[in-house]
Amino acid sequence: MYSRIFFVLFFAALCPSVVLAAPRTFDELMAQFMNLLNAGIGAAIILGLVIYFYGIASSLTSVSSEGIGKLRTHLLWGLLALFLMVSVWGILALVRNTLFGGGGGAGIGGGGDSGGCTGPIDCLAE
């Protein structure tokens, strides 16, 4: 038990990126939170697309009238679920841009805010 705690603390002390990753302001904390949500929703959309296309491919094998009805239902609910996921991503971008001034991440709604750096020399000086 103590060896695990020691290993984690030792690794954290040796890895400055882990130690210095803590946000210093509320804006940085919210930017990290929004980036985490953005990545999670992106992963959910990709997983949803994979499941959607797998369901279509597995339903295409049965060509009976019952199989076509099942395929139609699967297509409708799959498109609805994907629409809702992309809508949540858009609403998240709207909240980010409205409350926090945008920027701070990749994906829909992220702007890649550079934090005031105008060039590579300015960013190194900070």
What does this structure look like?
The protein is mostly helical and 126 residues long. The protein has a domain at 52-97. Helix content is 75%, strand content 0%. The protein has 5 helices and no strands. It has helices at residues 2-14, 16-19, 26-60, 65-100, 120-125. Helix 3 (26-60) packs antiparallel against helix 4. The longest helix is centred in the middle third of the chain and has 36 residues, at 65-100. The chain is elongated.
Alpha-beta classification: mainly alpha
Strand fraction band? Answer: under 5%
Order of helices and strands: HHHHH
**Which word captures the global form?**
elongated
N-end to C-end Cα span: 40 Å
Biggest sheet statistics: none
- Total number of strands: 0
Helical content (DSSP H or I, runs of 4+): over 70%
**Uncertain stretches:** 104-114, 122-126
Radius of gyration from CA coordinates: 22 Å
Give a concise summary.
The protein has a domain of 46 residues. The protein is built from five helices and no strands.
Key terms for this structure?
mainly alpha; 126 residues; 5 helices
Give the helices and strands, then pairings.
Elements: H1 2-14, H2 16-19, H3 26-60, H4 65-100, H5 120-125
